[in-house]
Amino acid sequence: MGVHGRSIVTARPISCLRRRGGRRTQRHQRPQRRAAHRPNRPHLKGDEQTHVVAVDAADVTIEGFRISGSGTDLGDDHAGVMVRAPRATIRDNRLSDVLHGVYVKGKDRAVVVENVIEGPPCVVRAH
Asked: CA 77, CA 61: separation in Å to the nearest integer?
């Protein structure tokens, strides 16, 4: 699997689904394994300056990816996936090293399910 090293902004309805053997994975073909246990996901790697994926069109599906490398600006709410349009589906992705995992910014009927979101390692210090 390759690494896509730039941010993605959707301008039209699309479905980004992981493929197996050149064929789109259909819902009835999906194995029952959880998101954390699927190796070899396509990797969407951000530039660490903004969102990795920005959903700006209605009816977009993002499914089956490894997503990492968002910016870290709280004022801009940088996220692995920023949803700014209605009826988005964000399913079965593994997000890491992102400020916000999936940020749904005031839009109707978003579905966010079966994603694994991991933050950076934390160091706890006793005072």
From this structure: 21
The burial class, CB within 10 Å (0-12 / 13-18 / 19+), for 102 is buried
CA dist 93 and 36 (Å) reads 9
Contacts (Cβ under 8 Å, ≥6 apart) of 85: 10, 55, 56, 57, 58, 60, 107
Distance of alpha carbon 31 from alpha carbon 98, whole angstroms: 27
Q: What is the pLDDT of residues 68-125, one digit of tens each?
A: 999 999 999 999 999 999 999 999 999 999 999 999 998 789 999 999 999 766 666 6
Q: In the chain, what are the domain boundaries? A: 3-118
**Amino acid residing at 61:** T
Q: Could you report the per-residue pLDDT of 27-56, keeping only the tens digit for each? A: 434 444 454 556 688 999 999 999 999 999
> Which helix H or strand E contains 4, and what residues bound it?
strand 3-4
Tell me if 67 sits within 8 A of 100, measured CB to CB: no
pTM, two decimal places:
0.72
